[in-house]
Amino acid sequence: MMSATPTEVEVRVAPDGTLRPLRFSWRGRMLRVVGVGRSWSDEEGDHWLVMTAPPERIFELRHTPEGTWH
């Protein structure tokens, strides 16, 4: 289940308006995104599976229709 706690996410906005997560806060640290896997949209917002390093982990980030990140 996704965390309902808002988080800080740094993104790059492509010329077509597409968002690409670059870094995000997790447990008091800023983690760098080194890879973006699958992405999709549903009624809860836009979702991305991202890989960080270090630590090498996979996280799901969600951008809600209201503009918050989780």
Q: Please, could you describe this protein's structure?
A:
A hairpin with a 2-residue loop joins strand 2 and strand 3. Strands 1-2-3-4-5 form a five-stranded antiparallel beta sheet, with no helix packed on it. The protein is an all-beta fold. The protein is 0% helix and 60% strand. It is globular. It has no helices and five strands.
Main attributes of the structure:
five-stranded antiparallel beta sheet, mainly beta
- CA radius of gyration is 11 Å
Quickly give the structural class. Answer: mainly beta
Reading the helices and strands in chain order gives: EEEEE
Number of domains: 1
**Most strands sheet:** 5 strands, antiparallel
Poorly predicted spans:
none
Question: Given the C-alpha coordinates, what overall shape results?
Answer: globular
Q: Helix amount, in percent?
A: under 10%
Summarize the structure.
This protein is an all-beta fold and 70 residues long. 0% of the residues lie in helices and 60% in strands.
Give the helix/strand layout.
Elements: E1 9-13, E2 19-26, E3 29-42, E4 45-52, E5 57-63
Antiparallel strand pairs: 1-2, 2-3, 3-4, 4-5
